[in-house]
């Protein structure tokens, strides 16, 4: 039997048609690029169980078809970003009285382009043209990006059907933050949680009770001192779970490990938390709400140091300003990267309908001195909120700037980048630099590291009395 015998209107000669007898496990790219190519063009139909060129039906029994579909889904989820919009269906037929199935994948033109095929950490972009799938040209990639209809990950449709009993954790979270009120189905529908066919949007999937994928991964670490480079790591914990459990996990991790102190007054005392709970909560909500969920292989980073807490989220501010560093948190305007996720968090009463929630953080630190003021900085691939430890009297000790750009230092050392980071904002004495790095203030360190950086113009040296101070040269090193 042949395909046109069971599907009368199939267009076998169309450039929107392709078939495979079986998915090649040894050459995954060979067929994955076709899926990406259709999605990056104007869509197409991909059949499995149909011999290529002849269109003869090979088919599968019911179990074999189910296994082939699952393998297809797993490979697409792992290697294509964003996942193309498509409908998968089984088409049955009979041969000698026995039931057989082929698989039809109807791929829509992607709302978010380009769809990227990533295999063995090598990204590629393919497009379908004239009946063949080829690598996209530079001009085609630019055109795809310009014509992309939707760019937000969370508002694309998944292949998972909505089931109300799979969101008990979300209902619990809503009830906790809304004085016992119940989250109604209509509220989720009004947010666009589910499309008209009953499929969940990507953002909704991240709220499912059983979600434990990499999209929401968090790494929480505690360091004994002031930086990652030279201090002992006390603990590193990783967590995967839905969005609400991720928020709860980070809050619990920090509150169980942060310091507490007490200030005595005449007739009473005041208890002080290292990080005000309201400020901590706002920071965590902000990191989750504005995370770039397209970025695979990344995680929200929660780092506790002796003098501060750093909350880093993948992705810079969405269509916002690239910030080197600012204490003016109230002045930051960042558009929403994730409309659905933000909408759900607003409905749960844990996020403001407008703004970033930074005003509340500023209020919590309003009475703190200059060394205990929170700040934020953003790069193209992440943004970081820094909350000073209010129980540490000296404030933030190591006011460093991350993500410096500079040409590698001739005859350089492994310590160069750390030195340039530490000295970028403020000049420091040799002893301070050595202490920060966790190395001895030796002649070797002064000549081989600092001397070499000064020699090649990366550090500027000055003297105050008899002490030598070093500061990073902004003409050689930029943020």
From TrEMBL:
<dbReference type="InterPro" id="IPR038461">
    <property type="entry name" value="Schlafen_AlbA_2_dom_sf"/>
</dbReference>
<feature type="domain" description="Schlafen AlbA-2">
    <location>
        <begin position="13"/>
        <end position="131"/>
    </location>
</feature>
<dbReference type="InterPro" id="IPR011991">
    <property type="entry name" value="ArsR-like_HTH"/>
</dbReference>
<dbReference type="Pfam" id="PF13749">
    <property type="entry name" value="HATPase_c_4"/>
</dbReference>
<dbReference type="InterPro" id="IPR007421">
    <property type="entry name" value="Schlafen_AlbA_2_dom"/>
</dbReference>
<dbReference type="InterPro" id="IPR038475">
    <property type="entry name" value="RecG_C_sf"/>
</dbReference>
<protein>
    <submittedName>
        <fullName>DNA binding domain-containing protein</fullName>
    </submittedName>
</protein>
<dbReference type="Pfam" id="PF04326">
    <property type="entry name" value="SLFN_AlbA_2"/>
</dbReference>
């Amino acid at each position: 039997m042949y395909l046109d015998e069971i599907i009368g209107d199939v267009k076998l000669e169309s450039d929107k048609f392709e078939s495979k007898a079986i998915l090649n496990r040894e050459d995954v790219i060979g067929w994955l690029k076709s899926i990406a190519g259709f999605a990056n063009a104007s869509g197409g139909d991909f059949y499995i169980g149909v011999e290529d060129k002849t269109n003869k039906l090979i088919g599968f029994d019911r179990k074999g078809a189910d296994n082939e579909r699952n393998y297809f889904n797993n490979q697409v989820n792992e290697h294509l970003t964003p996942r193309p919009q498509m409908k998968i269906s089984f088409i049955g037929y009979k041969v000698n009285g026995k039931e057989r199935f082929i698989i039809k994948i109807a791929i829509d033109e992607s709302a978010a382009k380009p769809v990227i095929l990533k295999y063995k950490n090598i990204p590629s972009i393919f497009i379908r043209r004239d009946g063949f799938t080829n690598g996209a040209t530079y001009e085609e990639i630019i055109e795809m990006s310009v014509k992309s209809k939707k760019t937000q990950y969370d508002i694309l449709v998944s292949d998972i059907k909505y089931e109300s009993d799979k969101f008990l954790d979300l209902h619990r979270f809503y009830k906790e933050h809304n004085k016992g009120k119940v989250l109604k189905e209509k509220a989720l529908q009004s947010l666009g949680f589910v499309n008209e066919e009953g499929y969940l949007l990507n953002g909704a999937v991240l709220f499912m009770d059983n979600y434990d994928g990499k999209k929401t991964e968090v790494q929480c670490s505690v360091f004994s001192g002031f930086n990652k480079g030279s201090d002992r790591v006390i603990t590193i914990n990783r967590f995967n779970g839905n969005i609400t459990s991720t928020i709860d996990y980070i809050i619990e991790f920090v509150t169980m490990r942060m310091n507490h102190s007490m200030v005595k007054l005449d007739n009473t005392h005041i208890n002080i938390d290292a990080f005000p709970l309201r400020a901590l909560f706002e920071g965590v909500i902000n990191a989750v709400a504005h995370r770039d969920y397209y970025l695979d292989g990344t995680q929200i980073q929660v780092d506790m140091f002796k003098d501060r807490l750093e909350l880093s989220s993948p992705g810079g501010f969405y269509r916002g300003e690239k910030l080197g560093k600012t204490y003016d948190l109230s002045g930051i305007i960042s558009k929403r990267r994730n409309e659905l996720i933000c909408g759900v968090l607003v409905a749960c009463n844990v996020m403001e309908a407008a703004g970033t929630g930074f005003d509340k953080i500023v209020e919590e630190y309003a009475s703190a001195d200059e060394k205990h003021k929170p700040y934020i900085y953003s790069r193209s691939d992440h943004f970081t909120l820094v909350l000073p430890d209010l129980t540490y009297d000296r404030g933030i000790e190591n006011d460093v700037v991350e993500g410096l750009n500079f040409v590698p230092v001739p005859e350089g050392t492994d310590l160069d980048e750390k030195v340039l980071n530490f000295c970028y904002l403020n000049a420091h004495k040799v002893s301070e630099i050595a202490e920060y790095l966790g190395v001895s203030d030796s002649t070797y360190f002064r000549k081989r590291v600092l001397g070499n950086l000064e020699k090649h113009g990366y550090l500027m040296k000055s003297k105050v009395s008899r002490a030598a101070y070093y500061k990073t040269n902004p003409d050689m090193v930029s943020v």
